[in-house]
């Protein structure tokens, strides 16, 4: 819930989302995130979810007000698995998705970095699942490899 303060120091409900933070446990009764942080810095609402690694990595989501809309502007992920580390940086304002893969199977751990241009889309706080947005973006770039 997003509450905004009125001039008389009371609060009013501005936005509600049931999608920003996913279910605490998956279908296998595995806890998805071990730490959750919500902060506001320089007018940006940051929702940071930290996983325990593997299939449940980190997902950081940033939202910003444009007029009366609270819009998703950035997603960052970090996942580890057998043989690699993967980070994704999605600037939704520019439509740029950067994927960075570290090959942990080699001693020098080489990094492959690619940036993709995607269609700019508006994702509102009330209806957006950052996890679904990044998964859909990944499907689009996966076909470009």
Question: Rg to the nearest angstrom?
Answer: 17 Å
- What is the N-to-C order of secondary-structure elements (H for helix, E for strand)? EEEEEEEEEH
End-to-end separation in angstroms reads 39 Å
Largest sheet: 7 strands, antiparallel
Strand content: over 45%
Structural category is mainly beta
Can you list the strand order of the major beta sheet? 3-4-5-6-7-8-9
- Helical amount among residues, as a percent range? under 10%
Mean pLDDT across the residues is 90
The strand count comes to 9
Unreliable sequence segments: none
Output the number of helix runs.
Answer: 1
- Mass-distribution shape: globular
Descriptive report:
The chain has one helix spanning 130-142; strands at residues 2-5, 11-15, 35-41, 44-50, 58-66, 69-81, 84-91, 96-103, 111-117. The protein is mainly beta. The longest helix has 13 residues, at 130-142. The mean pLDDT is 90.
